[in-house]
Fold this sequence. Notes:
Number of domains: 3
Pfam families: CO_deh_flav_C, FAD_binding_5
Order of helices and strands: EHEHEEEHHHHHHEEHEEEEEEEHH
Structural class: alpha+beta
Helix content: 25-40%
CATH topology of the largest domain: Uridine Diphospho-n-acetylenolpyruvylglucosamine Reductase, domain 3
Oligomer: single chain
CATH class of the largest domain: Alpha Beta
Keywords: FAD, Flavoprotein, Oxidoreductase
Bound molecules: flavin-adenine dinucleotide
Domain FAD-binding PCMH-type: 1-177
Organism: Aquamicrobium soli
Protein name: FAD binding domain-containing protein
Shape: globular
Strand content: 25-35%
CATH architecture of the largest domain: 2-Layer Sandwich
Amino acid sequence: xxxxxxxxxxxxxxxxxxxxxxxxxxxxxxxxxxxxxxxxxxxxxxxxxxxxxxxxxxxxxxxxxxxxxxxxxxxxxxxxxxxxxxxxxxxxxxxxxxxxxxxxxxxxxxxxxxxxxxxxxxxxxxxxxxxxxxxxxxxxxxxxxxxxxxxxxxxxxxxxxxxxxxxxxxxxxxxxxxxxxxxxxxxxxxxxxxxxxxxxxxxxxxxxxxxxxxxxxxxxxxxxxxxxxxxxxxxxxxxxxxxxxxxxxxxxxxxxxxxxxxxxxxxxxxxxxxxxxxxxxxxxxxxxxx
Length: 290
Ligand code: FAD
């Protein structure tokens, strides 16, 4: 199928882009990589009157390190993040999660801003944003504001973004990346959106957890952080603790129901993924500590 007719706009500055969102009438959408929006338009699930393409806004693309944050422009592609030595060094979880998204051709075009703005509950980057305490910068003709990841995701495909706002960057505090991290997911076919995924960041001292954060995608209408992970502080980082926490998280989550997995399946998948991911993060944390 082909999309319904629409008017294409290619602004050359952020000011132009936000003005278009303010002035144009009808269903106005921005597009970045087009890897989700264009298929949705082709299927006529969405029928925009106007498409505002962000691809020529160079200021929205790129990765920078400040004293406190890794700042990633919204139109930076999944593949750029995956291949960046800087991201590998200061935010290895973000790199690992990027490498799990779809296939290389999609990662070459899809953008972190598009993924986070879309807010698919099984997507990797919304969970990365939550896990790593990202601060999202949103711009419109009304000004600029910053929203933390834990306030950004409202429900499936619903976010804090207003219709006239553009997500311009994500800032990841370096502190949130401290420790060993790991991500694993379960997909029916390699490259598909996953059924569920688990991300972990841990810090260890003398074989015990000092701090632990565990997040999941695909088990709710938005990415979630486990509250039980907080109980790990002071516990031994061994198999018994891993199994206990995996069982507790499988009980804690309230899985969504869709055509891809039952509630019981999602609990089993989450349990298995925690059992696989937590020891890897611990190994990496131990290696850093040496
Ligand atoms: P677009 O498709 O251009 O836009 C998506 C939405 O975000 C639109 O509503 C658009 O208006 C809005 N938007 C885009 N940028 C901004 C912005 N800066 N500010 C405000 N709103 C914005 N994704 C995964 O996470 N995991 C997967 O495993 C996965 N598998 C895929 C498999 C296939 C076959 C395909 C086609 C896609 C898959 N995707 C997957 C989606 C892919 O990652 C997309 O690239 C991503 O979800 C959207 O990014 P985009 O830049 O292409 O956004």
